[in-house]
Amino acid sequence: MQQVCGPYKKVMRNKVMFGTKTESKEAPWAVPIAVYRGEGVMHCTATLVSSRHIITARHCFVRDFERGAFRYVFNGEAINRANCRGEDYIVPPERSEADIHFATRCRDEEACENINLPTNLITRKPALVVLPGLCSKNFVTYYNQDDIAIVELDKDVLFSEKIHPVCIDFDGYSSNYFENITIYGFGFDPSDKRVQTGILRYESSYILKCEFGMNVICSYSFDHVQLACRGDSGGGGVMERNGRTTLVTVLSRGEACNVRKKDIVDLHMSVWYYSRVICKYTGICKIDGDSPKRDVKQLYGQEVAKPKVISFGQKISFWIVFNFLCVLLLSK
């Protein structure tokens, strides 16, 4: 699959705790994802890497290893290893129900209403969720749990000013310590007194060496106070390389957020480390030399948000209220 990715001018504001909101067209690869579970919804962030694929964190679908097993976010049940495909785990469709929204700077209808934005969102569902390495016997520590997920969408998205993928890091840029990196997320910001959650923000950081393994990358904010928070999990860390916006990391975890936290690192998964498995499941692979030219016009177009569908129950409620009002008017 050819990557149709390119440069984006950084004209946006800041992200995450003590961050500033940004526009969707300034980071058209950043998408919110809401994973359904028994007690409600788990909100995460993801990155668009093709017209059919996003990359996010594994723990948005399957929790960290505990009590001898990995367990579904959906209902807390232990995963069924019959769904292993080699070292990778394929999440069953009934355990991967989620909404993935595009061309938006708010994570859901409620967040959009809070900042007076349209609530008709462009939405896709997961068709396939792959968790690399989850079935491997080499899993060792809390920080080395292959916290990355590759999600295939049920339908392609059309690229536009507000919907566009980033490139994949095939060259190990994440090992360039002290390089600038920008992390995106729709998560919680306790420093924002008006709208604390669900708005796209970014964090300006630089890469640090971690001692947790080759697949784990650390980052540290320039101002020492920005920090990834709840809902930012799975967000992409990007940098500009060779004129292209390139996905270098996937946000895994950080400290619990509050306005007094300072000098805390964020932990990420290295996209380069997982580039082979990303190639395997998405078809986005490293090409040596110049890639062949092809017409990509068909990948671009205008996505139209579907209007809200009134449920059968809502129709019945409306009909009852309408008839009640009619009876009142006629009785006068």
TrEMBL record:
One of its GO terms (biological process) is proteolysis. Residues 16-320 form the Peptidase S1 domain. It holds the Pfam family DUF316. InterPro entries: DUF316, Peptidase_S1_PA, Peptidase_S1_PA_chymotrypsin, Peptidase_S1A, Trypsin_dom. This is Peptidase S1 domain-containing protein. Coiled coil: none annotated. GO terms for molecular function: serine-type endopeptidase activity. The lineage of its organism: Eukaryota, Metazoa, Ecdysozoa, Nematoda, Chromadorea.
